[in-house]
Specification:
Layout: H1 9-20, E1 33-36, E2 39-41, E3 49-50, E4 52-56, E5 59-64, H2 66-70, E6 78-81, E7 86-89, E8 91-96, H3 98-105, H4 116-128, E9 136-141, H5 154-157, E10 166-170, E11 175-178, H6 180-186, E12 198-202, E13 208-214, H7 217-221, H8 229-245, E14 248-254, H9 258-269, E15 276-280, H10 286-291, E16 298-299, E17 303-305, E18 307-311, H11 344-356, E19 360-365, H12 368-385, E20 393-396, H13 404-410, E21 414-417, H14 419-425, H15 429-438, H16 444-449, E22 454-456, H17 467-476, H18 496-503, H19 505-510, E23 528-531, E24 548-553, E25 556-560
Parallel strand pairs: 1-6, 2-7, 8-14, 9-10, 14-15, 15-17, 18-19, 19-20, 20-21, 21-22
Antiparallel strand pairs: 1-4, 2-3, 4-5, 7-23, 10-11, 11-13, 12-13, 16-17, 23-24, 24-25
Length: 563
């Protein structure tokens, strides 16, 4: 049974199951795949644990004991003996940047550079390997690892990159550094005004330092050559192979370009798409999708559209998240509202138009004031259009005002969060916003206590795509600098079952797919991952060291760990 059949599979599955039901007078068909002798954690409250699973075609037909599943074995059945290992539903990353993540895998690596000098040296070494005129991009630098932590300037890299334009991103994606070659190409000078929602960082004389924040990065985006179609296809394949090696079977691609979606569709048609994709273009394209009648979660098992991504503000590390109170020791800096929020009526109108068209909204909001503004707009939308199963999302939902947890629940807004950010930002958050605001940063436990649904993701390439790092972060909250081994604001820790559920059923719910995937349940797509370690019994600090042995997508093994 080919997975390219897409929407025909549920019907074929019903036919197969009818043959297996007593009273139909038919012999039970043999399974295509059986996984046996496993510790199956199903994330299905009807049967939380089992020993074995049977699959026909792309779907699970039975979950039970070894003896029960043995009855599904036939002469052509592929049998995987799990040897007592943990079998989970495939991980569903609710927030990724799948193309830039793939690009980052082969780009200059700057995140672990521990000084400005090392940062510059790596860029210079990369320039030596590249043709004259070719751009040096990505990088994911992190100045908080430097002593002192200061933003880099173009003077650091200009002597090392005379022949190559450079625009390397800060790891949060809300700031980048250009060299002088790139600034000239973009026409950025001392007289260039700051765009709405962005900042051109300047020195004491008013000259650009090369650092561009948020919407100012778009000035550089206008001159960076776009990817060719072939480059995009190669990058997607690289990303999919990486995802498979980590047990990630579904991703929700935020800020997907139309060219990205076209490439996904081409790979689907060729039978080469091995990651399930839910693609969310920017909200500025709301008219396109509304015109042709696209609604949320439109498509088939491998490729869906119908969500829109928007930005309310920037980030904590770049000093552009939008707060009620200013950042500490930064004068009157409250952060930045994005250009999409200027004026607020523009965002409000787009939200109303998207909702009227049945499209899902996934809005980035990090600072407490930005989150409150988006909740206001969601409330206005519900009041104007009436009740519906909208599944409004706030991406990151990082720094909450205490008053807004209940509003989140009352409006049924999904908190699409990335636990790795908590152990990363926890190194410096209190120095930027103080203890009180930091106590409501990635407040996973408080969200659950208020009945808010969590969907876990990574924000890859901002953070590692590896689910083991994400689960570890949610369960331990041990910051990356080693200074909080017992957990940064430990009252916000989750249990392993809660973290797994948020990463599987929670993320499936966030894309309207909880009836199709997210648990190991008869009738659902057979997306599963076999792990090296039992996350429920090993010490929490060891979770990050666990790895994937096999990844199964739609009943096919798409990754096997060597040896």
């Amino acid at each position: 049974m080919s997975y390219k059949l897409g929407v025909l599979l549920p019907f074929s599955f019903v036919l197969v199951c009818s043959l297996a039901i007593p009273g139909f007078g038919q012999t039970r068909p043999a399974a295509d795949l059986v996984v046996t002798h496993a510790k199956v954690w199903t994330v299905d409250p009807a049967r939380p644990q089992a020993e074995a699973v049977a699959v026909i075609g792309e779907r699970i037909v039975a979950v039970g004991s070894n003896a029960e599943i043995e009855q599904w074995r036939g002469p052509q059945t592929r049998v995987i003996d799990a040897g007592g290992r943990l079998l989970l539903p495939g991980f569903n990353d609710a927030h990724v940047h799948f193309i830039s993540g793939g690009m980052e895998l082969d780009a200059v690596q700057l995140k672990d550079a521990t000084s400005p000098e090392e940062f510059a040296r790596r860029i210079g070494e990369k320039a030596k390997t590249m043709p004259k005129g070719e751009w040096i991009l990505e990088g994911n630098w992190d100045e908080t690892k430097w002593n002192p932590p200061t933003y880099p300037e173009r003077s650091l890299i200009d002597p090392l990159t005379p022949d190559n334009p450079v625009f390397v991103s800060r790891y949060d994606g809300h700031m980048g550094l250009a060299n002088s070659v790139a600034l000239r190409l973009a026409g950025i000078t001392a007289t260039t005004p700051d765009p709405p929602g962005g900042t051109i960082v300047r020195d004491a004389q008013g000259n650009p330092t090369g650092a561009l924040k948020d919407a100012a990065q778009e000035l550089m985006g206008k001159v960076i050559p776009p990817l060719t179609h072939d480059q995009r296809i190669r990058i997607i394949k690289r990303s999919m192979a990486h995802a498979a090696s980590l047990g990630v079977t579904s991703v929700q691609h935020m800020v997907a370009d139309y060219e990205d979606i076209a490439a996904y569709a081409e790979l689907l048609q060729k039978g080469e798409l091995i990651t399930r994709i839910y693609a969310a273009p920017l909200i500025m394209h709301v008219d396109d999708e509304a015109k042709i009648g696209i609604r949320h979660a439109f498509g088939g098992p491998y490729l869906r559209i119908g969500a829109l991504k928007a930005f309310a503000d920037g980030s904590l590390g770049s000093g552009t998240a939008y707060f009620y109170e200013p950042f500490l020791n930064q004068g009157n800096n409250h952060g930045l509202l994005s250009d999409e929020m200027q004026p607020l009526s523009m965002m409000r109108d787009r939200i109303l138009k998207a909702d009227a068209a049945g499209l899902q909204l996934c809005i980035h909001a990090i600072g407490d004031h930005a989150i409150s503004l988006i909740l206001d707009m969601y409330a206005e939308t519900e009041q104007e259009h009436g009740p519906a199963d909208r599944r409004f999302r706030i991406e990151h939902a990082q720094h909450m005002a205490a008053k807004d947890f209940q509003r989140f629940a009352d409006l049924h807004v999904i908190a699409s969060v990335q636990p790795y950010h908590a152990i990363d930002d926890g190194r410096f958050a209190e120095s930027k916003i103080g203890h009180d605001r930091a106590s409501r940063t990635y407040a996973f436990r408080t969200f659950l206590d208020h009945g808010v649904k969590l969907a876990f993701g990574t924000d890859w390439e901002v953070a590692p795509l590896d689910p083991m790092q994400t689960v570890y972060a949610a369960v331990t909250r041990a910051t990356l600098d080693g200074k909080n081994p017992g957990g940064w604001f430990p009252e916000q820790k989750l249990t392993v079952p809660e973290a797994i559920e948020a990463y599987t059923m929670g993320s499936a719910y966030a894309e309207f797919q909880e009836k199709e995937k997210g648990s190991i349940t008869p009738g659902k797509l057979a997306d599963m991952v076999l792990l090296s370690d039992d996350l429920f019994t090993i010490r929490p600090e060891k979770i990050k060291d666990a790895h994937v042995l096999k990844t199964i997508l739609g009943g096919r093994v798409i990754y096997e760990r060597p040896n």
